[in-house]
Amino acid sequence: MIPTFYVHSVLWLVILQISSAFTILRHNLTSQITQSAHPINFTTNSSLPLTTQKLSDTRLTCDGSTYKRNLIRDSCVDAASTIPRDEEPLSVADRTYGDIDIPLPARWISGDGRCVFDIAKASNDPIEVDFASLKDFSTAASMLIGSCLGRGGRQGGIVTGLGASGRLGLIMTSYAPTVTCGEAESFFPRDSCHDIISLMPATKELDAFGRVGQRWVEIEIPNTFYSVSFPGGKEDRRCKSTVDSSGLRDVASWYDMWQGVVAVDGMCGRFNRVGYAGGIGSSRSLKIDLEMNDEVTATA
């Protein structure tokens, strides 16, 4: 016959083991709930919790042949300083996808226009949607500057493996836009102008821009975009951007126009100045400006 004290000891040991297991399980569940309960505001619907790719999984390549040589370190440091360091994951996709946080293409440019950081895709196939934080891109920019422009280096490069899927990257390269800025203004509706940059076409197919009445014209000029207010879905019209030409007809892509208006924003709008980018198109006769709509801002 088994002694009573032995039975009690075994039962007590079993109870302790069950209690310990329950405590461990409860700790794991609580930890998982705490991690997944962090508020993330996506503008696109997703049924799966998505997080940004760890930067330890990225790959950095310095390549002057592909991403240009003779970059200016101070210009790239300035361009990198304009990238926010917010840690919240944001939706990233081609601008034709719909309501997203970062519509591609996306670019940060230095105040002198000589260095740019572009978000890159792993392929030319449209990205349905990906997620990354601005801090990821900011950190990648710092990595590129340190590796490709450090110790006398002056070549561009790319960091790949960014984003939840690892299909995003960041390119550092040089640029030489032809931009003219106006006088500084006491007020410049830069947030409204960013609406134009985010919403305007940016396709790379060539189109014929020309005056009304010209033959073989696909895009009539002047062609003006106005800023919009997303919450109300109505035009606030505080900022406008006009494509025009010194000639009758020229050939360019909307991507060329987008690059121009981004340059004007980074080189002029950043410092409360209006301006325009010229020398666009096969005949270099096209230009695109970025300015306040005086009819609205005068009464704002």
Please provide a written account of the structure:
The chain contains 7 helices and 16 strands. Strand 15 and strand 16 form a beta hairpin. It is of the alpha+beta class and 300 residues long. The protein starts with a helix and ends with a helix. The protein is globular and about 55 Å long. The longest helix has 33 residues. The strands form 4 sheets. It has a 5-stranded antiparallel beta sheet. It has a 5-stranded antiparallel beta sheet with strand order 9-15-16-13-12. It has a 3-stranded mixed beta sheet with strand order 3-2-6.
Key descriptive features of the protein:
16 strands, 300 residues, alpha+beta, 5-stranded antiparallel β-sheet, disordered N terminus
Shape: globular
Please identify the structural class as seen in this structure: alpha+beta
* Number of E-type strands: 16
Major sheet: arrangement of strands = 1-7-8-5-4
Helix content: 25-40%
Number of helical segments with 4 or more residues? 7
Give, in order, the helices and strands. HEHHEEEEEHEEEHEEEEEHEEH
In short:
By secondary structure, this protein is of the alpha+beta class. 30% of the residues lie in helices and 31% in strands. The radius of gyration is 26 Å and the shape is globular.
Blueprint (SSEs and pairs):
Blueprint: H1 4-36, E1 59-62, H2 64-67, H3 73-81, E2 90-94, E3 102-104, E4 107-109, E5 115-121, E6 130-132, H4 134-148, E7 157-162, E8 168-174, E9 178-184, H5 190-199, E10 206-211, E11 219-221, E12 223-229, E13 234-245, E14 249-253, H6 254-267, E15 273-280, E16 286-292, H7 294-297
Helix pairs in contact: 3-4, 5-6
